Automatic annotation (TrEMBL):
This is Class I SAM-dependent methyltransferase. Its EC number is 2.1.1.-. It holds the Pfam family Methyltransf_25. Gene3D superfamilies: Vaccinia Virus protein VP39. The keyword Ribonucleoprotein does not apply. The keyword Transport does not apply. It comes from Maccoyibacter intestinihominis. Residues 53-138 form the Methyltransferase domain. CDD domains: AdoMet_MTases.
Length: 195
């Protein structure tokens, strides 16, 4: 199914890129391709009993799609108020809206709810912010130890090098997505870690 068809089915509007508030720390809004989300949704990693946290949720595509596909609960956080408003607007019409919530907040200041056990990243911010976010994730884990999985789509070498040094993280698996796009880009994958 192509991008617009999924948007239509889910009754949301998430297409298009937005660079308006991007800087060296916070990257542009660019939705994860639905073909990649289908791979993740069909992988069996995320289930009905999970609560997914989506960092840099943008207009909410990941949240609406995965809560529709897997029946999980989802929390999207977004710092850009204008884009956050689009996510809230989508929630008014989306078919999986009752399982999705959005919060407008800076990622590094967000304290994770203890029910969060799955976390999704599509390069939302710089390594500097990721380090602070990982400290928040670890805090939540130590507050209530639980199995937590982190999904990194299209990770940079910088992200990967850092993640391999985080003591509490264990590499679990990788979902290869290179066949979905032309060019055989090695970054076209979802790397899964467990805390």
């Amino acid at each position: 199914m192509i991008e617009n068809e999924w948007d239509k089915l889910l009754k949301i509007h998430t297409t298009g890129r937005d660079d308006s508030n991007a800087d060296q720390y916070r990257y542009p809004y660019e939705p994860t391709p639905y073909s990649v989300l289908e791979r993740l949704g069909n992988s069996g990693w995320i289930r009905k009993e999970n609560t997914l946290l989506d960092y840099g949720c943008g207009k909410g595509r990941v949240d609406f799609f995965l809560s529709y596909q897997t029946r999980c609960r989802s929390i999207g956080i977004e710092y850009n108020e204008r884009i956050y408003a689009k996510a809230v607007e989508n929630k008014e019409t989306a078919i999986s809206a009752e399982r999705v919530n959005f919060i407008v907040v800076n990622a590094e200041q967000f304290s994770l709810p203890v029910e969060v056990d799955c976390i999704y990243f599509f390069n939302p911010f710089s390594l500097e912010i990721l380090r602070k976010v990982m400290a928040r994730i670890r805090e939540s884990y130590y507050e209530k130890p639980r199995r937590m999985q982190l999904y990194f789509y299209y990770p940079s070498e910088e992200y990967m090098a850092y993640l391999m040094t985080v003591e509490e993280l264990t590499f679990l698996d990788e979902i290869d997505c290179r066949d979905l796009f032309s060019g055989d880009n090695p970054r076209e994958r979802i790397v899964i870690f467990e805390l």
